[in-house]
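Worked Example 4.2. Consider the chain below.
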Amino acid sequence: MQRIFLLAIAGLMLLNFQSCDNAKSVLDKAGESLDNVNLFTYKDDIELGNQVKTEIGNDPKTYPILAESANKEIYNYMRSLMNIVLTSDKIKHKNEFQWTMNIIREDNTINAFAAPGGQIYIYTGLIKFLESEDQMLSVIAHEMAHADLRHGTRQLSKNMGISLLLNAVLGEKESIQQIVGSLVNLRFSRSHEFEADEHAVLYLCSSEYNPTGAIAFFEKMKGQPSPPDFLSTHPNPESRIQNINNVKSSLSCSGTKTNIAKYAQMKKLI
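Applying the procedure from the previous section yields the following structure tokens:
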């Protein structure tokens, strides 16, 4: 991270805390939401994403990354789905971020997450749980939206103490590790989840695919005895389904492709 970022944070601290009891009061007076504050630059997102990837790579017990050398076909397939999303001209950091696909071999985990800077992680449990390309595309687009809208560093800016962020900027290893751990296990706010849902539809709207494949995921999850942890903290599925349909309608999306057969074939590779 650049030293100028450190100076910017320090300046922000002085301006905020000299005039108010806390940062939130400053933001409230300005009419801004804490969810929209970001103390990081988009270049910091890229660096943090690379640090997350390094930490994950150094912890194969917790994050057993599927070896690409022995699984080239499934990696190429998942990247092809990511590239469908990347054809959208609505992705703000389409060219700046290092969009990468990472697969974690954990069949009992129905989950996916995005690290800043375009690092996307999909668990094999989720790949096996879904039933068609449009469903997986919606999940990938949703996670890419989290990265593109910089929700990770926006959430860090909201949740983390200024001193911790300053220490991380200065390269203090423990602070960096704490931030990386927070990013991996991040629970996004209600507004961020709705925003990612909406942008996932936006990204896919110009494609030939059904842009609301996520709805089938939510419907299927209703029948699960133990929903994944990340769903328990998300907005109500019914609200998200309605919101996704509303966005599709407002954008007049017409894609209908689902491609169930091809997806079933690819699932057999893992």
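Residues 3-19 form the longest helix (17 residues). The chain has one domain: 3-267. Compare this with Example 4.1 before moving on.
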